[in-house]
Design a protein that fits this description.
Distance between the termini: 15 Å
CATH architecture: Sandwich
CATH superfamily: Galactose-binding domain-like
Shape: globular
Structural class: alpha+beta
Number of helices: 2
Strand content: 35-45%
Number of domains: 1
Radius of gyration: 21 Å
CATH topology: Jelly Rolls
CATH class: Mainly Beta
């Protein structure tokens, strides 16, 4: 009996620990050639971009895939944006791949909001590598982890929300090669993934707690 209860408790904890994909953009289907919105390939949500000046958008080679989301004419505060629902989920994470041309922007900040107005920064500034010498260039077959920003844990304000907005925002005028961002400089993102852990029903948590308590009493 004690073994059975322990298995029940473990199953409940495992259910809590497993992350689900809430939204994923590989851009292999959406093929973004404009500012968007572009629907997620997996899950629900939309990707878009904002530039204060006219920008050219493209669906160019990705990080180990044939497509990504690219744009030029970057100025401070311009951004890529991704929205999804996190209803029923907690422990939200956000991960992505990014690069820039030599004269594209190097520094970006990741921001999150649950109302589309007030944004909170996640972590500090993220510096992307230039897409090319001395770095390996993005190509359609080989994925390079040097361009990947490991999933970032998002503040609890994003938990269980109908609409959560993420922005990857240009944070400085320094270019990827250490110079100054030029109007023709490009930046691209790929493999955007938003994940979360299912919030267990109250009854499931109570069952896990009761199983642990009963097992502890049996041991005594």
């Amino acid at each position: 009996m004690k073994k059975t209860l322990a298995l029940v408790a473990f199953a409940g904890i495992a259910a809590v620990a497993n992350a689900d994909v809430l939204a994923n953009w590989t851009f292999e289907v959406s093929l973004p050639t404009n500012a968007g919105p572009h629907a997620a390939e997996v899950g629900t949500g939309n990707a878009s971009a904002f530039h204060a000046t006219a920008s050219t958008y493209g669906s160019v080679v990705g990080n180990g895939s044939s497509r990504s989301f690219s744009s030029n004419a970057w100025t401070l505060g311009d951004y890529y944006q991704f929205t999804t629902s996190t209803v029923g989920y907690t422990g939200i994470t956000f991960g992505w791949d990014a690069t820039s041309s030599n004269t594209g922007p190097r520094d970006f900040g990741l921001w999150v909001s649950n109302d589309g107005v007030n944004f909170t920064q996640i972590g500090g500034t993220f510096a992307v590598l230039a897409n090319g010498t001395p770095n390996p260039a993005w190509n359609g077959t080989t994925y390079n982890s040097a361009y990947t920003f490991a999933p970032q844990l998002v503040p609890a304000l994003a938990d269980n929300q109908a609409n959560v907005t993420f922005r990857i925002v240009m944070a400085s005028t320094v270019s990827a090669n250490g110079g100054t961002v030029a109007g023709t400089g490009t930046s691209r993102v790929d493999n955007i993934i938003i994940e979360g852990t299912l919030i267990p029903a109250p009854g499931a948590l109570a069952l896990v707690g009761a199983a642990g308590l009963f097992a502890g009493r049996r041991r005594r």
